[in-house]
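Follow-up to my earlier ticket, as requested here are the two runs.
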Amino acid sequence: MKKILTMLLLALAPMLFVACDDDEDYYRPPEWVDDGPSHNPTTGELNAYERNLVGSYVSDDDPSSVYYFVFNSDRTGSYSFVEDGQTGGESFRWGAGATTVTFEYDSDGAKNTVEYYRKDGHLYIDGIALVDNTGQEPQPSDNPLVSQWEGKIDGFYSAMYNLDDDKHATVCEFTANGEGVQLDYDPTQPKTNYAYTPFTWSKAANVIEVNYAENALPTAIFRDYALSATTFTGTVNYGTDFFTFGYKATSGFDWTPYMTGQGVSEAKTRLGELRRAKSGPVRSGTFAR
């Protein structure tokens, strides 16, 4: 009996070894993202999950914030973005498992591991919705309100902040996903004296409603207004107070100096951190009184 078992094992041994060799990920499970100091997920041959990621992608979820990703088969890659008229990005080496992808940035060697998944024809990386980049630019919103605006709200600064109306102004932005931010500020000291207030907005029956984060300002209702690609004027009520306003379209305003919270310090250099850098209302200088 022992001789028979020994002969069976000897006969099966080559098959067992061949089966192990045929599994290209046997020596390195594809979900293995970090297995100690000696393991580097951004080196070696591509596994099955990584081969499925190779390609060029572009985001299609927010026309005001467009991201581009490139994953090359030699483990090099890059991402770039166009955010509020500003551009940025980095090159990297990369590696992936079943649910996470690791980036090793060429600029400083820092590593960052984020989740990814596929759903409804999209590749989601760090929460950013991507599709195959065919070379066509994402279509801008056909709503002229989706833009950056600058101007004044007459009587607003004295009513809300007890400040001189003639010496203050406003910059605001409405994004295509129903979010936005408003900066009421002193043009002579814009990074010292200001009120930064994120908001959400909606439009129905030609009425624009703006709700501010943490109720930092009363809900704004725009009913009687004129709107084009270059001007936005009319009246707005904040609660029971009515004001006239006049805005001109602008672009390229950088919101990051006014943001606080997790991700802000890396907002211009790491994937989706700018989108996640959600700041609450901030009151600074004369606006904090």
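Run two:
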Amino acid sequence: MKKIILLFCILFLLTGCAIEKVNYSNIDELLNDMLSEKVDLSNTYFEGYKYYIPRGLKLANKNDYNAKIVSGKNKYYLYIDVISYYNKLEKDFVESDAYYSKAINYNGKKGYIEITKINNQYFVEIMYNYAKIETLTDESSLTDAIMNACYILSSVTFNDEVIETLVGENALDYQETIFDIFGPHRNPESYL
């Protein structure tokens, strides 16, 4: 009985599960696989929108609707276009003679991808789902950069009620009035 269990364990260890990285032969196939799936995950929340940052990437800093996300030597610059989302503006894209240039349309969301070769590096610019990511990467990391960017962009989800209060016609007035309660008061009627 022990020999059978030992044989089974050895067999399992030798033929057990293995993680294999998916190797894409072309960018069209990669885009189709990444953007055709709906991503319902989110781990990063801000004013009126949320998105998912994949494992291995981290948010370096955020300023208004701009964010810098880093992964090893790659830096991703993310811009969320809340105004275009609120007004439902879609920009037309004309394909260029760059290394790779294509208009994309998945799940009712439009955008484009353009990759430009600069010396030995690739400038990747992807706009999709009212968000845009730009990164500069080398050829060995090009597939990973596109995958990470697509994953982030396809996970962007907007909160219409919050966006209405930020940019809509009923936007809240966030102006502040400075009132110094620690200074000398000349008029006793100005006390709280």
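The only thing I checked on run two: The beta strands are 44-46, 49-51, 58-63, 66-71, 74-80, 100-106, 109-118, 121-128, 131-138, 157-158. Let me know what else you need.
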